[in-house]
Amino acid sequence: MNKKDTKVAQRVYSKDMEFDSDLFKLEVDNMLKNQGYDDTKPILTTIEHCHFFRTINSSGKKQENCNFVGGHVHKMSFEIDKNGNLIASASPAIGAKFNDKHTHKVTYLRSDRIQKRKLNKEAQEEIARHGKPA
């Protein structure tokens, strides 16, 4: 495709998009942590930790995992039952070392109505003036 064949256009958005983003806490539980310097000869200690999980991020994308803590995540399942109750559960730890398959009780905290992240017009103009960022 030749550049002269390319038509220049700016995006046109029909309206702001809003989403319900639900926040959950994966309650405090224990994980294994290597207090040594060698993963082949670990000195394991049990420590407490927790995670947080949002159903939708600020770009409107559905989230599948909680946030990383201690080198691992939990795959999350989320549903709204027929009575409108929010239900979330966490898988055993994913990515954890030392065969640590702990899980967490999940507690609903709150919901937020968020607007989808918008383009920053000034940043787009700066990129257009100076080329693409490295």
Unreliably modeled segments: none
Rg, alpha carbons: 22 Å
Distance between the termini: 24 Å
**Gross morphology:** flat
Largest sheet: 3 strands, antiparallel
| Helix content class | under 10%
Category from helices, strands and their pairing: mainly beta
- Count the DSSP helices: 1
How would you briefly describe this protein structure?
The chain has one domain. Helix content is about 5%, strand content about 35%.
Q: What is the topology?
A:
Layout (H helix, E strand, L loop, with lengths): L17 E17 L9 E11 L21 E5 L5 E5 L15 E10 L5 H10 L4
Antiparallel strand pairs: 1-2, 1-5, 3-4
Would you kindly provide a written description of the structure presented here, covering whatever features stand out?
By secondary structure, the chain is mainly beta. The chain has one domain. Helices cover 7% and strands 36% of the residues. The chain has one helix and five strands; from the N terminus they run E-E-E-E-E-H. The strands form two sheets. Strands 2-1-5 form a three-stranded antiparallel β-sheet, with no helix packed on it. A two-stranded antiparallel ribbon has the order 3-4. Strand 3 and strand 4 form a beta hairpin. It starts with 17 loop residues before the first strand and ends with a helix.
